[in-house]
User: Fold this.
Amino acid sequence: MRLYTFEINDEPRAGAELPRQGRLLDLHAADPALPSRLLELIRAGKPAWKHVADLLNVTSAPAYAFEEVKLLAPIARPGKILCSGINYRSHQEENPNATFPEEPFFFAKMPSAVIGPGAPIRHPKRTRELDYEIEFAVVIGRRMTGAPAGAVMDCVFGYTILHDVSARDVQFKDNQITLAKNFDSFCPLGPCIVTADELPHPENVRLRTYLNGELMQDGSTSDWVFSLPELLSFLSHTMTLEPGDVISTGTPAGVGVFRKPQRFLRPGDVVRLEAEGVGVLENPVIAA
Assistant:
């Protein structure tokens, strides 16, 4: 399934794309027993997910064309957003100061930084080095604590795109990673969540970033240093992962700070991220 959060009549709603129709079904309108928010649907568990899948094949409820609605971030306020750093070999190789980590490295992005497709990335006055990073992200579907690597994939609900926007000059000054990653609007998310059954090989997904139409990043999750099961198992031995948490898996080479010459985002730019099998996440950049 391809699941969205969309706005109609100023109201956020959980929706699912009708197969072969390219239209968006309002799940709560189709069955009022279903939650009206996607996070609530994820937390409702497998019986609710199966009901949605069955509903898509039999419903006669009205559906919307995508151009009739405004897409929002699939999950407006995830409980946790944890991002893997230096998890692509190509990204490590382009970074003159990086070494391969002995174990996965993570930092947090805050729910307040999340925006949806088409929403503007705000360029703060505090930075002159605003950078882009495409990240393939996992949405947790079942509670995980101390899970072995062989068991974690059963806890994955689906996948989405996370844009890890970064203020590099803030990041590299006194190692302020948390501040640099968490200005308002620094976490575009979307356009949808593709359920795990629809993307059986997350370890081989092509990722691309375009800046004003120019290709900047072109990589694949096959370049991961730590596999997805390793990342999720490692995290679950540190903290409990809960339904709706978002875990991203790093970025491939081509980020602006390591290009020669460097290439940073400016007001008026448009950034387009593409993940094979997931879709397109595009956002303009405006002055804050």
Notes: The two ends are 36 Å apart (CA to CA). The longest strand covers residues 187-195. DSSP finds seven helices and 19 strands in the chain.
